[in-house]
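Rotation project, supervised by the postdoc (A.L.). Task for the rotation student: set up a whole-complex structure prediction and record inputs and outputs verbatim in this book. Inputs entered:
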Amino acid sequence: MSSLAHLLPLTVLLPITAGVLAPALFHRRGLACWWWALAAAILTFATTVTLWRQLQSGSTISYPLGGWPPPYGIELVFDGLAALMLVLCALSVLILLAARRYVEATVPSSRQSLFYALILINLGGMNGFVAAADLFNLFVFMEIFSISAYALVALARGPVAALAALKYLLVGAVSSLLVLLAVALLHAQTGSLNMSDVAGLLAQAEAPGASALALGCLVVGFLVKAAIFPLHFWLPDAHASAPSPVSALLSGLVVKMGIVGLVRTRILFAEAEIVPLLMLDNLLVWLGVIAILAGAVLAMVQRELKLMLAYSTVANMGYIALGIGLATPSAVSGALAHTVYHATIKTGLFLTAGSILLCTGLSRVDDLRGLGQRMPLTSGALVLGLLAATGIPPTAGFVGKWQIALGALQAGQAWVIGVILAGALLTLGWAIRVINSLFFRPPARARVITANEAPVSMLVPSVLLAVLAVSAGLGGAILLGLVEPLALAIVGADHDH
Amino acid sequence: MITELFDLRPVAAPLISALCAFGIMLLGHHAGWRIALSLAASVVKFAVVLSMLPGALEGNVYRFSAGEILPGLEFAFRVDALGLFFGLVSSTLWVLTTIYAIAYMRGSHSLRRFFGFFALCVSTTQAIAFAENLLTLFIFYELLTICTYPLVIHSGTLEARRAGRRYLIYTLSGGAAILAGMVMVYQATGSLSLSTPGLLHAGIDERALLTMFVLLIGGFGVKAALMPLHAWLPTAMVAPTPVSALLHAVAVVKAGSFGLMRVIYNIFGVELLDTLGYHQVLAAIAAITIIVASLVALRQDVLKRRLAWSTISQLSYIVLAACLLAPLAALAAVIHIANQAFAKITLFFVAGAIEKTTGKKRISELDGIGKTMPWTMAAFTVASLSFMGVPLLAGFITKWYLSVGALAAGAPVYVGVMMASAILNAAYWLPILYRAWVKPPESPNPPRREAENLLLWPTLACAAYVIVLGLGAQAPAMPFALAQSAVAFAFGLEVVSP
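Outputs recorded:
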């Protein structure tokens, strides 16, 4: 074990410790707490960069906690999937950057430290979740990021937010219980909790029915977390009513954890022949197709910008599920690339929507007419983000769609291409409405006319992410090269038997 | 025979316009900067594109690759004969249109946005012309759609927004079809390169080939205004005249025609298409479009709408010529890109100049306009005579080669189509000329009121070029030779002798 491996637990412990300490250290000192949170997030990011460079140069890094070797001890692994941490941390830093002014304006000072603490704990939970190598810790970290997410939604005041948070909490709790049940079932079957251990032992499991039930529970649990249609119903209200930086965090990053969970589940059951994975794949394809169309149509009928963005997340999670379900190397690598790209695009979009909400107090698209005159940079960033969300080449949204379409052909399901394109065109339908409203209509509201450009600390993350969203597609070959080994690992296990 | 050279110019040409757009967005508050940047960029770009002409005539092909964007797919530019021909036409016309637009748009709102996106459109058109593979072409094809949108709805009225929405629905659906076709081509061949005379081969499942053909042709056919995919074009004429002129007579619609030619000559290839026979259906559709659009044009009273329907008809000349799969007809297809562009832009410039100077938009109001605006109407006369196919003008060259090609391809029916189209063209242009020159004006001796110089000069320059293209088509330095080598490449011939 190289000394660098000690950095791995740090990615989890650093943000969680900093988060737990924050309310105690910085009560009623919001600005100081912001600096503290930002520093912690940046340090965590630096840690993941170091780990990632190690991963690039050699093999995966694993860390047995307390020195107990697996399968008895708890293990953290920094593998291809865990490299997602890099994205999680980088985007969290940007979210924190944008959050300061938003929090100052909307969160009472007694609760500000709580806000930053929850964001850090959420980040730690997600880092732990992607790196967890055993089932129980997978569950524990899932609870950490989920509960902090419920609390973050509830931090926004108002009846909608409270109700949304409650709905989110109830649905989330059910999905967590399902995952816990699955973990218990698998432990009963194999006597182990370490995932690679369980994967090997499942083949000799005595009661395949129980294993199948565990698979079902895991899939449903993670489908809820990933907000795959029709299990998405908790998402729009929660994401739209949460404070905007939190919306960015939830829509950009937290829902992606469901996908990570699904991928881990798929790898877990790939070696065992008890349950045909084909069924799971077909399920994902169909759910993905429905989610793409339903999400886009539902986004189209919304009037509030943040609700549109939230439904667009539903559609995009559909693309990712579809890509994984098609189970060809191109499609899976496309889905993984889209996970990263969509995280970037949607974080940027919600942060930008947050700037608009903060500067004008308006959220309905029709009220935002003419805002392009007053807030050109913010509005421009929103437009770029929307174009990327529709997947116009060469934006970031294009790469995933191209790869998934290619994968659909390879899987002999050419009709899926029609769905992918229909989804993109529908997305464009509502994106154009927003663009028209911002740039080509005269102002209808006094607050638009008096609005000023967003503060720099909000502008920088918005514009940076918008530029990334439209240009990152040009680096598609690089990102696809990075996720390819992982994609092959996911489908390769399938091809063995 | 063809030498590939690494060169920065293929990427520099689109980049100049893009940088110009960026500069305008930054500094465009001041009219001075806006005009200086637009003019400088258009002239510099024209020089860059033109500097590739001598080398291209010697058989050089310039290439630039910026690396892979998707596995196995490069973001690359490659200037071959066909691409340079289209690139030359669009960069020449950008210079003239910029001058025209500066005068025409004076006093309008949001000029920074207008000129910025105007330059971006030209940048993307140039990139379409120079794209090395279908993906690069497609990227800029879609960007062109996005960049023209703010220009179409520039006025911001309800009518403009409606036209803009219709434009986007049509062109982006077309784009989606292209994307689907492109994925299929890539899956079948592992490449999307446009540097071969035929990427697909006969070994591929015929149903798949048919699907690809329908998707790709249907997709590009939207911008090429092939019937029944044309409905966006007449409504999009709500845009300011320089936009209609450059984008809807040259850049956008020609990007569609150019894409169709790339699909026919570089993706399918003459040989494969000849055995498959799909081209005959497409040729029939193009012929129908030529006739029907002309019939509709006859009934239009608003000048710009008549021009729009005439564009739809003329664009299908290119498609028809390309579909005949005979070298001489192909020659007609390539040179008609230039012939139609110069003649049609002249007509649009005139329509805009009349509207700007007198406020008249309808043909029925143009009685005796030749007396008040003789130079403007002289340009109009030259261009419309060219469309009728009067010898010594550009349009005649197209009709001649297309007819000869049709005979060579064993389809004499299309000679009849050419004749019918010539008669129809006469039927909708001659009444305008009659009104302008022969009919007495409303008031007896109206004062001479020519359009202002900045509007008039570009118009006259275009009209003059229509004559030059007709008279001196075969002169050694003319792009005609470029068209010949493009056709020779597509058909695998040594030389194409007209």
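Student's summary: The CA atoms of residues 264 and 270 of chain B lie 7 Å apart.
Supervisor addendum: Residues 3-491 of chain B form one domain.
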